[in-house]
Amino acid sequence: MDEIQNKPRVGSARKVARQLLKDVGVSNPPIMIKDVVNQIKKSSDLSVYPWAFGDDTDGIQVTRGDSATIGYNQAQHRHRQRFTVAHEIGHFMMGHTNGNSIFDLNSKKPEEIEANQFAAELLMPLAFLNKEIKNGNKNVKNMAQIFDVSEESIWWRLRECNLIGKM
Ligand SMILES: [Zn+2]
Asked: What is the pTM of this model?
């Protein structure tokens, strides 16, 4: 049983992100985190704060009862902050009551994988990526600008979705 419970719910994490984008009504990148947070606030008590963490923490998520608080490292680059908040929202939406994060796209922990997959689908929706590629965009730097994410995130996402060969 443990083995099944410990498997990351990748499909579910992506689905939750897609539904959220649909609820927000996003039709084009970049995805605005503020809009996403405001959408969640309609049904949940969620607060998001910049915070003076040390270098070793990107963000935290703490849920107590019905209210959740997300803090993100105010000293970091905007791209990293966006991914951190998206990641912490992922922890919240996937029902993880605690998230303490350092940026690690290659984490093997199920909860971290779920949060990363959620964040990736939220900030770089597969449908939007496919559209870019279909329109002939083969430039990762340009894609990073369009999605307002780091080039590292775009590369990781393209590899995850097996899209590199299609570019
Ligand atoms: Zn995390």
From this structure: 0.92
